[in-house]
Each structure stands twice: as structure tokens, then as C-alpha cells.
Design brief:
61% of the residues lie in helices and 11% in strands. The protein is of the alpha+beta class. A hairpin with a 2-residue loop joins strand 4 (264-269) and strand 5 (272-277). It starts with 7 loop residues before the first helix and ends with a strand.
Length: 341
Amino acid sequence: MMYRRPHFTEYIMARLVTLAVFTSFVFSMLFLAFIPEENIAFYAIGLLVLGFSVFIYAIYRGAERMQKELLIINTYLDNLDKAEKIDYKAHFFTQEFEDINENLIKVLNSAKKREDIKQRYNTKLKLKNRQRADMISAIAHEFRNPIASIMGYAQTLEEDKEIPQALQEKFLGKIYNNGLKIEALLSRLVLWNKFESGEATLHPSSFDMYALVKEVKQALEDKYSSREIVIEGSSYIVNADRTLLEIVLKNLIENALKYSKDEVLVKIDADQISVIDQGSGISSSDILKVTKKFYRSGTHSWDNSMGLGLSIVKSILTLHGTTLEIESEEEKGSTFSFQLS
């Protein structure tokens, strides 16, 4: 059988009773030896025993209360991992126990805060891991088609040496265009990584927004030769990062071209720039999600460049102290707009 250590009250009482019995015996012998009358000696011994009994009872009550207070303090420590919050208000009869209690509450609250921080860190870590997995999946998805095309055209050129010159040039053009697409995807990924790591910085300059829109229009019309981009507005000088705003305009206008069949309108009205299309629109459930990283709608891939295009747009505009506003109605079209003062 294992030895059980005594509780606080048991320990105090054992020591006290032992001392009281020994002291009572010694004094009883002295009383009997030095008091001639036995009746008086026995009365004295009785009063001594009564006095010791009252004294022992008083000590017992005090020890019992101290044991209860020690149990309260120990309960804090025992339930540290289980307690959601510590709001127990105990009143101790000695200042030392009161101080211990208050200090323990501080320690436990601090421990709970550290545990909450740890849980939040673990949650963020899990989110980062999930985003990393999503990113790898998105990269694999987006790179698969152009790489497959390059390999297919290259294999055809390698295996069939008698392909007409015109067809060879067409295949080489396809290979080149798919290479450009891969380069664009990589550039977008690098840019997104800069925003994620906080390395992206502004290089502002003064330029004409109307002229920048015209440049983006010309570049996209070369790519989408059958589509029309209409610009409404006039010269509008802004102080911003021209390179980053070119990315914003290109993303917004190209999205509009991809998801609509009619003309795309770019409107410059005072300090607001809007890209308007008459395409399939965005559902109300998707409209708040399309600017999130790696988000893909179940019906439309609004951001088909690894789910980063509109996320990058949002980050660039945030860096400029403005926001992307989206108004859309399914089967009627969408308006993407932002302001630059």
C-alpha cells in the first residue's frame, strides 16, 4: 500500500495533539507533586485539559479554513487547461493567502492568453498551409494547358518533318504565345508574393490616366481583335504608381472582355474610373468573394490567373488608399470602379 501524505489539517492536528498530550502529562505530574490537596490538583489538571481542548479546537477550525483556501488555490492550478475564464472571487482571512490568490489569477490569466495566442497562431498556420495547397493546385491547373499545348505542337513539329512552312510558322506562333502566357502567370505570381510578404512599394509619378487607359486598350485590342473597347472621358492627371495601375486596368478590362460579348466601356468621370460590361454578371453570393485569393466561382472563373488577378487589383488599390467597388447583376453585366484623388 502506497504511503499517503496527510492533509494540512491532519498534519497540524497530529502535531498539536501530540504536543498537548505530552504537555498535559508533564503538568499533571507537576500538579500532583507540588499541590498537597488531591482535589485541587485534579481540578487544576481538569482545567488544564479543558484549556488545551479549547485551544486545540480553535486551532483545528483555523487549520480547516486554511485547508479550504489552499484547496481553492489548488483548484485553479488543477483546472488550468479546462477553465475558459477565471472569474472566481474568493475572500481569504489572511493577506498572504489573498496575495497568493491574486497572483495566481494573474498567472492563470496570462497562461490563458498565451494559450489563445497559440491557438490563433495554429489557426493561421493551418490557413497558410491550406492557401499554399490551393496555390500549388491553382498553379498546376493554370500551367497545365499552355505546357500541354507547347509540348503538343513541339512534338508534332519534331515527328512530322514534312509539315508545310505556313503550318510550321503557325505552330511556332502557338508555342510562342503559350510561352508568353506562362511568363505572364509567373509575373503575376511574383507580384502577388510581394504583396503577401509586404515588399511591394509605391513609386508614384504624375501621369494622364486617360492616356494610360488608351495604351491598355490598344494592347488588349491586339489580343482581342474582334472586340471593342470604348473610352469615355477626358484627360485626367493623377499622382500614383503608373506600372501598378496599368496592371489594375489590364486586369479589369481583360476580365470584362472575357466574360461579355458586347463592347466594354471604360468611363473616366471626375476622379472615378469604371470598367463596365454587359456580360453574364456575378451572383450576389459571389460578389464579396471574387477579390479573395485563389477564389473560383462554381459557375465562372472570374479570376482565371490562379485566382489572383482581382486579389492583386484589390491589394494595389489598397496600397493607393482606395478600394475596388463592384456592382453586378446576373445576365446583365458588371461595373468595377475605383477612385483616385
